[in-house]
């Protein structure tokens, strides 16, 4: 189904063209004075210059041409040459009806289905998830869902940080604590145990301890580096420990992400790129892309048009070891081999922008990734506390994600309990659903690249531009629909043209759906969906307050309203699913 704005634009463009003007002047946009009209066309002002005619004369001609159109209720010229448009109630209702009867509410399938890999989440194994990983998971999940809904072939990959020095640190710390384990006996020839020699809580304690210890003891740090090196070279005992670390961490991570309603298709990690590193290095050297500079191997990636200095991309350090960039380049090689993606999107902290810029340039320059395909860096800003500084615990430590989630849930629980009586267990369950909406909406309603302030009171409020307000609206509609059912009110095949201003306003919000989802996808912008559902929820609530739906005496009108609000609920639920949360039955 076409977007409503295109349908209107096309009609106005045809009018311009039939009058001998370039059709481009017929472009219509949403009105920036909704108090005056719904849509507007400013093309006559621009056309005036080209055709050396007063803008109002051109606008008058166009308006006269369209006077009998069934699409418009009013189309008027306003001096100096604006065209103000109000749609006919019948046209709006027929659009809503068509939308409600269409797959995905009229969102058209893409011209070309793209294969997209989304790299998001990016937690580091053996380290607890903290708020820094939250944004990547929340934004990445939504972008994945939006692109999939648009009809693309999308694969979400968590890209675990499972290959760095933290592995060597854990191995050496384990050796310090339990030297008797078979992994540390060089004469051991048997199979290594199935069972991990630590639990997740031990693991989470081992890493920070080892990290702190390494800071004080350079020889320990060196030993950890050496252990990392041996692990990467494939030493069986360390491989076995590494597998335990991954196993224990991954099952814990899965639980955490499940709580966040975040689901990855692939659980690959930096380690998977390891096998591609030697060939990448060889390829870059052989084809003259990489050269030695102060002992290190680098690729120049600066371009003539650069306005700032872009340093060369380092491939190998002077001691011959691979670094973060090497892993990311090798991962692109792997993804190319496995999926041939049209695009890879990375949802990562914006402070890593330079790193990705270097990696992308290197891959395109060296023809590792087709120049015409897309490597997209979606850098997100920092989540700050109310003091405007990066969000921390009260004592300045890193805030664990689990803790953050439970404090949101507690705040919502208090709100629910203060409003009404409900069995504790039920309230807890609802608080979990509403809490997740508070958290995700609080994040996604901001443009991703901006920093934002994490404000638990605001995010959990049932009023204003918040997740709970959206859910509250959905729950309100569900409750009306339930009551209508009890009273034997059924809906109808099609919605009637609006009976009043608030009903029309609700329809005018609904019709924007396919356009909003399309641009949210194009722009990687979940916040557009948030804006849309906030406007839609407001329009619904106004409609609800101005009309007594369940007491309406005109039965045909009432049935039409039930159909309209049912559609509103379906659209809202579809949207929140794209944002990665759901609504409870009551709250
Ligand atoms: N593990 C990394 C970190 O915590 C994020 C990984 C992002 N993805 C990537 N392909 N480099 O900073």
Strand order of the largest sheet: 1-2-4-3
Major β-sheet annotation: 4 strands, antiparallel
Model regions low in confidence, pLDDT < 50 over at least 5 residues: none
The gyration radius over C-alpha positions equals 29 Å
The structural class is alpha/beta
Number of helices: 20
- End-to-end CA span: 35 Å
Strand content: 5-15%
What small molecules does this complex bind?
arginine
Describe this structure in words.
With about 575 residues, the chain is α/β, with parallel strands linked by helices. It is about 50% helix and about 10% strand. It contains 20 helices and 13 strands. It has helices at about 5-20, 45-50, 55-65, 90-100, 130-150, 165-175, 200-215, 220-235, 235-260, 275-285, 325-340, 355-365, 400-420, 425-445, 455-460, 465-485, 500-510, 515-520, 525-545, 555-580, and strands at about 30, 40, 70-80, 80-85, 115-120, 155, 290-295, 295-300, 315, 345-350, 375-380, 385, 450-455. The chain has a four-stranded antiparallel sheet. Helix 6 (about 165-175) packs across helix 8, helix 8 (about 220-235) crosses helix 9 and helix 16 (about 465-485) crosses helix 19. It is globular and about 90 Å long. The chain starts with a helix and ends in an 8-residue tail after the last helix. The mean pLDDT is about 95. It binds arginine. The site of arginine has 8 residues, from strand 10.
């Amino acid at each position: 189904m076409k977007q409503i704005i295109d349908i209107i634009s096309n009609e106005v463009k045809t009018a311009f063209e039939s009058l001998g003007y370039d059709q481009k002047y017929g472009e219509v946009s949403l009105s920036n004075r909704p108090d005056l009209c719904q849509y507007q066309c400013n093309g006559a002002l621009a056309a005036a210059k080209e055709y050396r005619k007063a803008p109002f004369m051109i606008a008058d001609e166009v308006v006269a041409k369209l006077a009998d159109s069934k699409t418009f209720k009013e189309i008027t010229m306003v001096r100096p040459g604006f065209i103000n448009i109000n749609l006919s109630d019948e046209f709006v209702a027929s659009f809503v009806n068509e939308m409600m009867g269409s797959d995905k509410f009229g969102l058209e399938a893409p011209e070309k289905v793209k294969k997209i890999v989304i790299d998001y989440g990016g937690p580091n194994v053996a380290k607890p998830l903290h708020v820094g990983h939250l944004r990547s998971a929340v934004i990445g999940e939504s972008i994945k869902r939006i692109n999939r809904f648009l009809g693309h072939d999308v694969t979400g990959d968590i890209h675990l940080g499972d290959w760095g020095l933290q592995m060597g640190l854990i191995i050496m710390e384990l050796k310090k604590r339990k030297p008797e384990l078979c992994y540390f006996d060089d004469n051991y020839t048997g199979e290594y145990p199935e069972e991990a020699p630590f639990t997740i809580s031990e693991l989470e304690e081992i890493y920070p301890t080892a990290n702190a210890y390494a800071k004080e003891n350079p020889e320990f740090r060196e030993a950890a580096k050496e252990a990392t090196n041996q692990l990467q070279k494939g030493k069986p005992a360390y491989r076995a420990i590494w597998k335990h670390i991954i196993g224990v961490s991954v099952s814990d991570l899965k639980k955490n992400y499940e709580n966040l309603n975040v689901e990855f298709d692939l659980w690959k990690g930096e380690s998977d790129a390891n096998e591609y590193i030697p060939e990448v290095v060889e390829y870059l050297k052989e084809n003259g892309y990489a050269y030695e500079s102060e002992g290190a191997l680098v690729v120049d990636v600066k371009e003539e048009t650069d306005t700032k200095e872009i340093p060369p991309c380092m491939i190998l350090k002077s001691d011959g070891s691979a670094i973060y960039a090497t892993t990311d380049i090798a991962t692109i090689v792997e993804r190319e081999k496995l999926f041939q993606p049209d695009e890879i999107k990375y949802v990562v902290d914006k402070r890593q922008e330079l790193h990705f810029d270097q990696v992308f340039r290197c891959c395109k320059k060296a023809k590792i990734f087709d120049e015409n395909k897309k490597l997209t860096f979606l850098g997100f800003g920092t989540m700050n506390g109310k003091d405007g500084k990066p969000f921390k615990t009260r004592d300045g430590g890193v805030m664990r994600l689990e803790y953050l989630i439970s404090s949101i849930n507690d705040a919502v629980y208090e709100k629910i309990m203060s409003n009404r009586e409900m069995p504790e267990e039920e309230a807890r369950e609802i608080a979990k659903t509403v809490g997740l909406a508070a958290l995700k909406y609080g994040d996604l309603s901001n443009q991703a690249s901006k920093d934002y302030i994490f404000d638990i009171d605001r995010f959990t409020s049932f009023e204003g531009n918040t997740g709970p307000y959206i859910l509250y609206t959905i729950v309100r509609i569900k409750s009306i629909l339930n009551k209508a059912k009890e009273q034997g009110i059924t809906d109808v095949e099609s919605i009637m043209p609006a009976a009043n201003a608030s009903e029309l306003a609700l329809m005018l919000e609904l019709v924007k759906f396919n356009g909003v989802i399309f641009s949210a996808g194009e722009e990687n912008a979940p916040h557009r969906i948030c804006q849309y559902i906030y406007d839609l929820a407001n329009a619904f609530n106004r409609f609800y307050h101005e009309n007594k739906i369940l007491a309406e005496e005109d039965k045909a009108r009432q049935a039409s309203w039930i159909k309209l609000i049912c559609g509103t609920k379906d659209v809202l639920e579809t949207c929140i699913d794209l944002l990665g949360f759901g609504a409870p039955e009551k709250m």
